[in-house]
Design brief:
The chain has about 210 residues and is α+β, with helices and mostly antiparallel strands. The protein is about 30% helix and about 30% strand. Strand 3 and strand 4 (about 85-90) form a beta hairpin. Helix 1 (about 15-45) runs antiparallel to helix 2 (about 50-75). It is elongated and about 70 Å long. The two termini are about 20 Å apart.
Length: about 210
């Protein structure tokens, strides 16, 4: 839920949005470059054939995607995650939400191999009911098989690929030791997406408290 407080002065703050903006910038600029190439083709050759116009359309589409991604990443550059004695914080501008350590049954990091690299997510497994329509946290809610007995299907899953070591360090520093279940390898398709299609459900399942 949206919270009117802020992390403690000694909190570990990780600039989630800025990192994503900087890591995506190369691909976004490259996509915009495709669009510029498409414009150049139109301006430089007014007598394009069908194949040429098809190429222009593809290049311009890539450019449009690049522009949209730059705008989205720029708007999200001030999104911040933080860890303190209270819990995990998600801050978006003036709005903040906190997932308290005392509301969790387990925390850890999942990872999977992808090509020559890997993907990583922070897993925050609650011991209480999740509000899947929370205005800030809904994007992180996933429904997946629990790692072990006592952990819920519903949990918060935060992608932290490029900075997973910093997140692991913060979790080990701030989360109660009894919650930490470590770093666990998963199938490459495990990450999933948030689902808001059916009110009161996550991925088609009722949003029920942990049993």
């Amino acid at each position: 839920m949206i919270f009117d407080g802020r992390p403690a002065q000694d909190a570990t703050v990780l600039r989630y949005g800025l990192r994503r903006f900087l890591h995506g910038l190369v691909f976004d600029v490259a996509a915009i470059g495709f669009g510029v190439a498409g414009v150049w083709m139109v301006l430089g050759d007014g007598d394009l054939r069908v194949g040429g116009w098809t190429c222009v359309a593809v290049l311009l589409s890539g450019g449009a995607v690049g522009v949209v991604q730059v705008v989205l990443h720029w708007r999200a550059r001030r999104w911040v995650t933080a860890f303190d004695a209270t819990g995990f914080w998600w801050i978006r501008g003036e709005e903040a939400a906190v997932i308290r350590w005392d509301s969790l049954a387990g925390v850890g990091i999942y990872w999977a191999r992808r090509g020559n690299g890997s993907v990583h997510t922070v897993e925050l497994c609650p011991s209480r009911e999740i509000d899947r329509d929370d205005p800030l946290l809904w994007r992180f809610v996933r429904d997946t098989a629990p790692l072990r007995s006592g952990l819920p299907r519903l949990r918060y899953r935060v992608s932290v690929d490029e900075s997973h070591l910093a997140y692991e360090k913060a979790l080990r520093q701030w989360a109660p030791p009894e919650l930490w279940f470590g770093r666990k390898e998963q199938p490459s398709s495990y990450r999933g997406k948030p689902d808001r299609t059916t009110p009161g459900t996550v991925n088609g399942r009722p949003n029920e408290p942990t049993r």
